[in-house]
Specification:
5 strands, single chain, about 65% helix, alpha+beta, elongated, five-stranded mixed β-sheet, 2 domains
Length: about 250
């Protein structure tokens, strides 16, 4: 995953904020602006918007937050409950926790590895936290086989041990996967068979479909309550989202 705030996303956000301000100031919808404004009128309105934003920069964070909330609601429409239902055993933290963090992850992802201490700290600090791992093996050619073995480890009730061993190894080549399986104490022959189960492929394909709807083009990606976060956002951002999700749960 590239850095969370890409230039294109920044331009999109600022453009959307400007259009929001245009609507508020001029009382015109975007469609009307697009079809009705001539070049001179458009420049005049852009000047008004620019001057207003420069005079009132305090509205930008609020506008961006509202836009982000709207976008998250659109992305999560119809799939929130499905996301929170893990592949059996592919859970960290409290399996019965009241607050759920969904992480889209790839064992080959350096940013996922970077986020591991943050997740471990959150789990330690929040006994009611459930972390659902959704494997999105898109980084390396060996990622799918490693992800399948992770789900096979979940089938044996040893997901967390395998997960930790894989990230400690830092590689997803077959030798590293087998070594991680040994560290986790897997019945390797049984795990190899489980990794080929059609339900494993179905899970990985479903995760890819979810990722597309959520707008993830890499890992890690996060769904926490009604928020969608992208990239190695850091412990503070994750904590804030967890606190908001807990509050919404009441």
């Amino acid at each position: 995953m590239t850095q969370p705030a890409t230039r294109s996303k920044l331009f999109f956000t600022l453009g959307a904020v400007a259009l929001t301000a245009l609507g508020a100031l001029g009382g015109w919808t975007f469609e009307r602006q697009r079809t009705d404004l001539g070049p001179g009128q458009k420049q005049a309105m852009e000047k008004v918007v620019r001057e207003y934003l420069l005079e009132h920069p305090e509205i930008l964070p609020e506008a961006v937050e509202k836009l982000r909330a709207k976008d998250s609601a659109r992305q999560l429409a119809g799939i929130s409950a499905k996301l929170a239902a893990p592949y059996p055993g592919a859970v960290m933290g409290n399996p019965d926790g009241k607050v759920t963090v969904v992480e889209f992850s790839d064992f080959a992802c350096g940013y996922c590895r970077q986020s591991e201490p943050d997740i471990k700290a959150l789990i330690a600090e929040n006994p009611d936290l459930r972390v659902v791992i959704r494997h999105l093996p898109v980084i390396a050619p060996t990622s799918p086989a490693a992800a399948a073995m992770g789900l096979a480890a979940a089938e044996q009730g040893k997901y967390v041990a395998f997960h930790d061993a894989m990230f400690a190894a830092g590689r997803t080549d077959p030798a590293s996967v087998e070594a991680a399986a040994k560290v986790a104490g897997l019945d390797f022959a049984r795990a190899q068979l489980a990794a080929k189960d059609p339900k494993v492929r179905a899970e990985l394909e479903a995760n890819l479909a979810y990722a597309r709807q959520l707008g993830f083009d890499g890992t890690p990606g996060w769904v926490i309550g009604d928020q969608v976060l992208v990239g190695a956002v850091g412990k503070q951002a994750l904590e804030k989202a967890v606190a908001a999700a807990r509050k919404s749960e009441g």
